Amino acid sequence: MTDQGWNTPAYGSPGPQTPPPGAPAPGYQAPGYQAPPGYQQPADFQSGGYQQPGGYLQPAPPMPGYQSAPGGLFLDPATGLTIPEGTQVASVGIRIGAFFLSFVLSLITLGIGYLIWGAITWANGQTPTQQVLGIRCWRMQENTVASWGQMFLWGLSRSVIDYIAFGGLVSFVMMLVNKDRRTLYDHISGIVLLQDPNKVLAPPK
After folding, report:
1. What CA–CA distance (Å, rounded) separates 25 from 19?
2. Number of domains the chain is built from
3. Range of the domain at 135
4. pLDDT category, 32, cuts 50, 70, 90?
5. Which residue has the higher pLDDT, 30 or 161?
6. Residue 139: helix, strand or coil by DSSP?
7. Cα 195 to the chain's mean position, in Å?
């Protein structure tokens, strides 16, 4: 009550307003933001066509048909196989060349030397010929380089199939016809031959 009497709000008029929690107090003014001296806003920023400043490097777009896969692998569109990045499925030409090169190396090392050499390189998923050509045997199920034992089984199945009548011919035709370029003994062993020029599959030193 004041000197003029009761000071009550008229009926229907809003009463005192309480600011919501976190709202600035009455009379508060937010400090205005000022751009640093010399700053110029891009001309196309307001139009929605903002572009990165000059000199900014955008990542290179992937190759056509390239599809990433988890674990540093990618889906090779040419063969339909998921293989490690930085490698490629050995071509038909290089596999034919490896076939003849193995005979040359066997003659040079007198056979027994080639076997001893192979017993060493198998631990790295390679035959001596594959070591010379930069090829490795890759296990499809485990996504790992073939172990010594798996290389032994791969070589054994290859020897058996090659000595069976028409076995070697069937494997050769499969390599030519199938887009994954795998032979019969490759399928039996679950192995695919990969060219590894950058040695991304090489064991750590």
Report:
1. 8
2. 1
3. 71-195
4. low
5. 161
6. strand
7. 16
